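User: Predict the structure for this protein chain, please.
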Amino acid sequence: MCLHWLKFGNASANTLTFFDEFYQSFESKIESKEKMLFFLYTIIFALFLNEYNAAPGVKKLFRSVEKSGLSKGKSTENLNVDDLKFANFPITFACVTDEELIGFHKVVVNDSVIPSTLLERLDNGRGLSLFFHGAINHVTTKYGLMYHFAKEWFTESGSNICIVSYNFDMEPVSGCNPALVAQHDEAIKRLGYVAKLGRDLITGIQDTCWDSEDGGKCLNIHEVDIIGFNFGAHVAAQTCEFLKQKMNQKVRMLLALDPSRTAPIMIEPKVAIKKGIAHYVQVIHTTVEGRNGEVFEKSGDVDIYLKYKPGQPLTDGLDFYVHMATATKRLYMLASEKGSGTIIKRRGRQPFPEPKSNECVVGVYSALNPKKTGKRYVISVANRIGMLKTELGSYAESTILFE
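Assistant: Here is the predicted structure, written as structure tokens:
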């Protein structure tokens, strides 16, 4: 009996030897290698399946693999990010910049340079919402469901929308050596590289405007929202950090959707999601209804706990589905300090109610109230998952994350 693992990027057999050491320490106490492998398989997968709820398919194992890049407690703070370059690691920007545009304006960056054609399209007087996908999610289709969502988000927000995907190489690895996982230094540098390109996109739009003789309104850093899903939440946070370092200015908002975490048997990562790297940092965690949300460390100005029941539809990638519902204004969600929060369906163009003193708006249209900084809020879809699915319509398809 052998375990099957995923090789992440340029994985090395010398990395993350924890599992080999774990196996050796217990091998003599188990009657047979078969039993030991079954035991190890059960323990690890029970931990992974209990803790992670992001993209569909192989994600529950891969989320733990991808996080190994941060498991040594390192960050990109000491890296010279301007020197980071990777061959054969394409970064895709899929953007909506015009009401008349049919399909994404899609650009693949292979040489660390953002094409001027993309910068010129984004230099149109609008704000910017920059969304970082999870590590295994991608955008390959110009006219799919993700495009229709982004177009609707563009219309409702009035800002340009760019979705960044950076699908790390994966290849299946078979055998009895479970140490074949991500090389953590490599993963940290790749995280920094993607974040650097996010930074360069924003500064490049501004430079394009300032160098133009046409005049017009240039992109203001306070009109920029940066959103990240799962592993992308860490990339989004690094982008905010790099912008702050280079410009000494902060974007309006960092929205971290279900940031990836290490399993309890691994060393906790030193993540960049923290107060102060954006004017407003909102972090949305998913947790099972009835479970104590205190297991999550507070990392934002506001931390919101999105609760659900196991086995319900949409729970794989729930934070992303909630983001789609709120970004398109199909639903308006108010998390509360106590109870289950409030979810309101849109009724024509009637304005949504203002949050009460014990409530917080969920998602990208939220604004920081200094009186609410440091508080925890709850929104539950456990008994309202049908409403969420109905209002999302075709966006509720799991394929939207892998088009």
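The two ends are 34 Å apart (CA to CA).
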